[in-house]
Amino acid sequence: MPKCKHCNKESITISQSLGVCVDCIRRDFKNVRSQIEKAHTDSRKKYGLPVYPPNDPDGISCKICVNECKIPADGISYCGLRTNKDRKRTSVSQNEGNLEWYYDTLPTNCVADWVCPAGTGAGYPEYSCTEGPEIGYKNLAAYLEKRPVPLYMDDLPTTSRNHAFGCLDIARKKGLKHVRIGNIHLLGEHIDP
Ligand code: SF4
Ligand SMILES: [Zn+2]
Prior knowledge:
alpha+beta, binds zinc ion
């Protein structure tokens, strides 16, 4: 059972990572503040992130969100998405991107399942893995994001064709089956590595 490090109360509602109960936070904030700050620091350091938004007067600025980072040389931003390398702001690259993925139990992903053979078995059953609805199968839906959640970075380019086809190639080499690129007409121009 989680225990409050300040008053020793035990309760399932006490956050283990914070280590203090809500009553102590409300009634004795001054004395539990350092414990809360330690939890914040530990949670950031665990992922190699700065504890506070960097504010180097000579750093590279980003004003996309309220943190308004000024990233020092060879440093990293508060969100962890941007760095300052050789006085250049970096984010995604040929080899690294912001991806979002999930298992989708709806076999057709974003297409209406009642018009898909995987949803009903009707129409083109040769494209379905089972007779009738594909129960028990999942899509691995993956997206190269322009929009790292929860931040919107509108200066990131659209996913390029060569990035998308490169991902497709890697996924197939890893043994993933039935991997496809969605609407290629929405992809951006080829980008040189
Ligand atoms: S988007 Fe990231 S780099 Fe930019 S200001 Fe916000 S936390 Fe800093
Ligand atoms: Zn307490």
